Amino acid sequence: MIIFSNSILFRRITIIISLIIVSLILWNTYIFFQKFKQEERAKMEILAAAQKEIAASTDLDASVTLPLKIIENNNNIPMILVDDKGAVINYQNLNSKKALNPKYIEKVLDKMKSENSPIEVSFSGENKQYIYYSNSDLLNKLTYYPLALILILVLFLSVVYMFFNSNKASETNKLWTGMAKETAHQIGTPLSSLLGWIAILKMEKIDNNYVEEIEKDVHRLNTIANRFSKIGSTPELKKENIVTITKQAFDYLESRSSEQITFSFTADNQEIYTNLNTELFGWVIENLIKNAIDAMLGKGELNLIIESTSKKVKINISDTGKGIPKKLYKQIFKPGFTTKKRGWGLGLSLSKRIVTDYHNGKIFVKESEINKGTTFEILLDRV
Q1: DSSP 3-state assignment of 151?
Q2: What pTM was computed for the model?
Q3: Does residue 352 form part of some domain?
Q4: Is residue 217 part of a domain?
Q5: Low-confidence residues of the chain, pLDDT below 50?
Q6: Left, alpha or beta for 371 (phi > 0: left; psi -120 to 50: alpha)?
Q7: Are 137 and 145 in contact, with CB atoms under 8 Å apart?
Q8: Cα 256–331–316 angle (5° rounding)?
Q9: Last residue of a domain, which of 135, 167, 191?
Q10: Which long-range contacts (CB under 8 A, 24 or more apart) does 152-157 make?
Q11: Same domain, 7 and 146
């Protein structure tokens, strides 16, 4: 609990610090942008003054070297000089080829009018001219700078989030694995005792039918214990006839289910081999059949069909139950998710783990219709 509380506190601190960093980045960038924009306007005002001085000079011997130098040094701020009627007189730092097209000049001029207010150049209050200009490439690039930093920060937070999630998932997996192994260990003790009692019952010559049924249930408990003991460890896979293994799990539940459910088992071939851990795979089939029985509320039709190709084995388990909404097709495989009033929401999540992680296969909802039924499909490699 202390570790969990510390992780939550650390996450909150990380989020707060990240928000502060983002705010500081945006604020400083805004200040810098405005300052840079003011400097560019100051440059254009100096350029306007130089333009005015050149135009106002009537002395042919007067030096205009400095004003010309100022105008020539403007090599990064696009500008257009127009008269008081809006006719273009001169321009700088535009695309020389595109500038041959008057429409291009008009388009650029409209953009400049929207970006910055013009600078007036007047000569003794007459012959007014106006300088329109747009932001330099450097200033335009600066507008994307905070977005890039925010993107980097978002990526960083995503990595932190995934790190915490993976740690939490790892801790959850360790918890369930530990519980599963402890359950298997606890079941083992009464199992040994039950085997001893069965031996005594046989010696006492009790009705053999009773003893056989007890042996079946003890064998069932032993299978369950073995399944739990394998959770969390890499199971051993062997080449097995999937039809036989599936039929065993199918028959076990059919004999212990309501007579109001019609069971149907079909296989296109009686010998279809794939690499399996028989105990874990039988668990998957049982989970799917139990879910189907629950969905039908003990009354309906359950069909299991095995089909195969040269490379794949496909198992479909269909019921005539209440169905699953399409938005829940993926959620039902998440640990803890259940639509039942009673249940841990582990059956389908364990089934998915067994099929995908241990058998390199796929399990998914093939189709479902509300109040008509659902079909689950398992897809495995054939050998």
Answers
A1: helix
A2: 0.53
A3: yes
A4: no
A5: 1-4, 60
A6: left
A7: no
A8: 45
A9: 135
A10: 153/18, 153/21, 153/22, 156/18, 157/14, 157/15, 157/18
A11: no
